[in-house]
Amino acid sequence: MSLIELITGNAGNQVASEAENKFGISKNQVIALLAVAAPLVISYLKKKSQENSEEADALNNALDKDHDGSILNDPSQAAARQQEGGSILDHIFGGQKATVENQLSKNTGISMDKIGPIMAMLAPLIMGYIGKQKQSSGVTSGGGLGDLLGGILGGAQSQAQAEPSNPLNDILGNVLGGGSQANAGSNPLNDILGSVLGGGNQQQQSQGGLGGLLGSILGGK
Fold this sequence. Notes:
Layout: H1 3-8, H2 10-23, H3 27-51, H4 53-66, H5 77-80, H6 82-93, H7 97-108, H8 112-137, H9 145-162, H10 167-176, H11 178-181, H12 188-196, H13 201-206, H14 209-219
């Protein structure tokens, strides 16, 4: 399963529907949020695991213990694991969490009082996906996680480039709006993935909308 299939497939749609019912947010807004949150979370984890071997080992242990991918077959777990998801995000984003949530809120139109709880529902789903990819890739230690996570992001960007008609692009274009209009004809999903992957400050500055903003946050320069 690719990252884009996670977002547009049954698991992503089911969690988005549950969030819609629970928080009164449109399903498309939640899917658009997941489309940005997933690569962002993975990028932060990649950075942490590559810079700190202890973080890499801790992530490896957490994936083995708590995130075996079963949530992908039973997405209803996401609502029940919302508190756990909040703790995951606290650890991943640290002191940048409020800044990340603020930018996500501004660009998806999801209010600040709901962005955190919805992100907390999405976090266990994203972690379950990473755990499943870890199993299928045969990664058994923290040392291999950086390459695994980088491969997930690279694969998603390649798929976005290869599938300009992906329905997710329409959702992102409609929900994220403004930024994509400045790049008429461009692929909004690919713009977001490109900036999260860190295409350099110049590229980030030239991109409008959520992708450029989150790329700047992630770059932290």
